[in-house]
Amino acid sequence: MSFSAEVRDELARCEPKCEYCDLATLAALVRVCGTLSFAGPGRYRLQIATETGAVARTMIGLTHKILKLKTEFTVRKSVLHKVRNYLIALPDQPDLGKALVLLGILDRHGALVRGVPHHVVARDCCRLAYIRGALIAGGFVADPKGDFHLEIAVQGEEFARGLAGLIGELGINARVNPRRASFAVYIKSADDIKKLLTLAGATRCVAEIEEARAVKSVKNEVNRRVNAELANQTRSAGAAQRQMELIGELEHLGLREGLPQALEDFCLLREANPDLSLRDLGQLADPPLSKSALYHRVLRLEKMVEGARGR
């Protein structure tokens, strides 16, 4: 089961907070993944096609519970993709038109409602239930082991912006992005995704996100330290090579003989250990020397070479 399917399944099992929350959830399900057909004046047929069992289960259960309407249920299996496809249909029947008005799909004059129906989301708990229904119907949540991304695919820009506005009222930054024939309401922030899923009721999936974030944090810290160590080694190797070149130039200029003992000791140490950093080189000195002490000896040698060049 994909992580998106886990989220949908957990959200589909959430209990309503008030008597109208189930209506809000059903309204969002129908609006996001339903197709409405007009069979004549006052005659309709509603179909919901989905590959997610949670959507089919929730749709049928709430339709019978709230609307008391007859449903037709068909399960088809794709030979190509080897997945089940569930088709729930509400055929034309006497109370279907009233139900569509109640769900906010049609207004009282029979016209399509393009945005989020205000009467369905009048209460705070119902707003969350509506968002939950949209997530169950068309939500995608990327596996938290990869990039953090949540989106809900919907039809109609006005509805997409209305849904993003509902999410925004929760203090969560949701954006709208046009697709080929639809719109995506999406969230990229891991903290915002966690907050939305927590409020919607997917606490088990939020725990998985937290665990994935912790693992990512450890991996990133390890990578940072490894990269820093590699960079230090590269710098140390480059510095050691320049010091070997400096010693060679001292000999070329005839400055090696007569060097103070401290500088000669450094030259001998470096020649014997051409790959070590100054810190490690200092540990081999007798007595041991700090990195700073050896660096000052390098500076003295550089000044001697510069002075000899200037003569």
From TrEMBL:
Domain Sporulation transcription regulator WhiA N-terminal: 21-93
All copies of domain Sporulation regulator WhiA C-terminal, residue ranges: 222-304
Record-annotated WhiA LAGLIDADG-like domain positions: 129-219
Pfam families in the cross-refs: HTH_WhiA, LAGLIDADG_WhiA, WhiA_N
Keyword Cell cycle: yes
Entry-linked InterPro entries: Homing_endonucl (IPR027434), Sporu_reg_WhiA_N_dom (IPR018478), Sporulation_regulator_WhiA (IPR003802), Sporulation_regulator_WhiA_C (IPR023054), WhiA_LAGLIDADG_dom (IPR039518)
One GO process term, biological-process aspect: cell division
Gene Ontology MF terms in the entry: DNA binding
Keyword list, A-Z: Cell cycle, Cell division, DNA-binding
Gene3D superfamilies for this protein: Homing endonucleases
Task performed by this protein: Involved in cell division and chromosome segregation.
NCBIfam families per record: DNA_bind_WhiA
Family: Belongs to the WhiA family.
Name this polypeptide is given: Probable cell division protein WhiA
Organism of origin: Collinsella tanakaei YIT 12063
